[in-house]
Amino acid sequence: MSTSPPLVIFDLDGTLADTAGDLMAALNFVLERDGIPPLPVEQARTLLGAGGRALIRRGYAVSGRNIEGTRLEELFADFLHDYESHIAARSALFPGVIDALERLERDGFAFAVCTNKMERASIKLLQALGVDSRFRAICGQDTFGFYKPDARTLPAVIARAGGTVERSVMIGDSITDIAAAKNAMIPVVAVDFGYTDKPVAELGPDRVISHFDELDAAVKSLLAA
Ligand SMILES: O=C(O)COP(=O)(O)O
Ligand SMILES: [Mg+2]
Questions:
Q1: Beta strand spans in 44-147 (E)
Q2: 7-18+91-224: what fold?
């Protein structure tokens, strides 16, 4: 008999938490130091989803500058240092997250986080938001040596959280999450309030929700299927 609970795996930036204000502030810290005008927080939509290095590369590319190699690594270290100093100053859980976790927990679900943030920053953010202890595993871009959308990522998170691939669902806001789930043949619910330049409904998720109040029904219908 299996004792593994059904598992709900959450993306972090743009899914569990609205973090664009702090991420864009840290990006603007490095851009401004290089004499580049700050980017508006609305631009997060086109810049976030693939992790901090991608954010920096895309942020510099807006003004036509190509950043790679050791320069990228230096900027990434400075970005992370700045970001971690104000990690939840302008960040908050999206409405209904806590209530949804409590309802699903009462129904026997367990939870994990799979993000392309660094693991340390992810844990620090979830601690600051008061929810870290609710997750059986908090996995970041540097946790396994591969990351979303690599097909191995979600199975690795599931193994760490003590779940099974057959009874897991991914919740995310971007093409990266939807591709990671499809690559691992795991059903995926997209939230439509996160960071994506293309509407998530066009990216082929199994369900789309606009509020966490709709999460339970979406997850249960996918696991029953
Ligand atoms: O912020 C990013 O670029 C990635 O973070 P996410 O995987 O939690 O969305
Ligand atoms: Mg995201």
A1: 92-93, 110-114, 137-139
A2: Rossmann fold (3.40.50)
Per residue in 99-126, pLDDT (tens digit) is 999 999 999 999 999 999 999 999 999 9
CATH architecture entry for 20-85: Orthogonal Bundle (1.10)
Would you tell me how many other CB atoms lie within 10 Å of the CB of residue 192? 14
- Tell whether ligand 1 has an atom less than 6 A from the beta carbon of residue 9: no
Nearest CA among 57, 61, 55, 50 for reference residue 174: 50
173 CA → ligand 1 middle, Å: 9
Active-site residue set: 11
For residue 129, pLDDT over 70 is answered with yes
Q: Is any ligand 1 atom within 6 A of the Cβ of residue 51?
A: yes
Distance 52 CA to ligand 1 centre (A): 8
Say if the ipTM goes beyond 0.90: yes
pLDDT per residue over 63-86, tens digit each? Answer: 999 999 999 999 999 999 999 999
Q: Do domains 7-18+91-224 and 20-85 have the same CATH topology?
A: no
3-class SS of residue 68: coil
Domain ranges of the chain: 7-18+91-224, 20-85
Residues 6 or more apart whose CB falls under 8 angstroms from that of 199 comprise 192
